[in-house]
Fold:
Amino acid sequence: DVKVTQSSRYLVKRTGEKVFLECVQDMDHENMFWYRQDPGLGLRLIYFSYDVKMKEKGDIPEGYSVSREKKERFSLILESASTNQTSMYLCASSLRGRGGYEQYFGPGTRLTVT
Amino acid sequence: TQLLEQSPQFLSIQEGENLTVYCNSSSVFSSLQWYRQEPGEGPVLLVTVVTGGEVKKLKRLTFQFGDARKDSSLHITAAQTGDTGLYLCAGPSRRTYKYIFGTGTRLKVLA
Structure:
């Protein structure tokens, strides 16, 4: 059974703190993604990675960075958390390739920045 | 720009009713995925359709991919309260590693 896990389900942080969100997949997938989901805005891509140490900016990368040191692990970093980064964060993974490969999602991390 | 539009946006029905949700685009997709997302959880993959005209069944759920691979539908027979959730369609972008997500249909099934 495919599995994507995220380090926390709920997180509360203060403005200005550095926040780490971790994602691990056990499917040997090459591609990994970080999204945020907000009411009325749908899923928006923050960053994705198609290989170890490789990353590309998504649609809303400002205020975020990522790290992929191992194939199974993809971390999202909020360098200095702000209240407008309060959101549901979703990690996903997929096989490499541009057609026919579905994404599998983790359970999400609900981050609140106060 | 590839876009996926879903309709209806919201749907509230009684248990036992049938319903259809649509996912439409003006672009061709190599495949489309359907997900269900419950509140506070991540989207769960229901099905992938790949071939134009393909029909897939998952218990009471029937998924169809349009002949031209530009649209898809999800039909639920005899809806149950457990079907409540946000239904998302998605497909891989032609040019990048990104995925295009539909706008979503929020379904509520009342007992």
Q: What stands out?
A: The radius of gyration of chain A is 13 Å.
